[in-house]
């Protein structure tokens, strides 16, 4: 049985022009211990689909699905109290902008302890020791000293590590990483990806990696879902996707790489789609 099983997910937002479907009838599933990559350009509905799963979209969003289960439990039919016991504990998420996701008014130690207290009941010295252990686990030096630091006193890479520490603090069964290396320099990107892959292997959690970087997909994923404008274009194991992509859009993503530049002009997905007529698919 899949750990997470979503069928026919649709997410809509009311606009002046009517209902806009950011996600339109997609299926997503992930098995225990599996690494699933969801790829596509910005605006393809990757993050929205996962935020809908977490129940983190505003009340103005319309979320429907034929099925949305976690370990066989109906996420859509749960009460808010029931869902709070799962979200942040069994299902955790690393958000795109770590500095913006951390509360600037509270120290790193307070924010880590808050998660540990809410879901595991840890307080005082026990919570402090566990917070230090988590910061050490994600590679932050002088972890005890960093507990008293505020987010603005840390680098982007350090804040991302803190977010990862918070996300794995309760040993989640599923970790969703939403563009986890955005706005980080290349060296730090590599370190963060290596860290996530190592933690996934060590803990056995399932990992959903949201990205537009096909290099990240090749290095980390077991299986890939390709999205475009809210639709799922194709799904395949990572080797099959790279060796034999089925959709024009996937071929466009794979072709729009720096090594395919002509002169000083980089290829774009739009270029490739135009050449791949008829139709996006």
Overview of this protein structure:
This protein has 281 residues and is an alpha/beta fold. It has a domain at 250-281. 39% of the residues lie in helices and 24% in strands. The chain contains twelve helices and eleven strands. It has helices spanning 46-54, 80-86, 98-101, 108-120, 124-137, 143-146, 156-168, 186-203, 214-220, 238-243, 248-255, 269-275; strands spanning 4-15, 18-30, 35-39, 61-64, 67-70, 73-74, 91-94, 174-178, 206-211, 223-228, 231-237. A six-stranded mixed β-sheet has the order 7-8-9-3-10-11, with helices on both faces. Strands 1, 2, 4, 5 and 6 form a five-stranded antiparallel β-sheet that branches. Helix 5 packs across helix 7 (156-168). Belongs to the ABC transporter superfamily. It holds the Pfam family ABC_tran. It is a peripheral membrane protein.
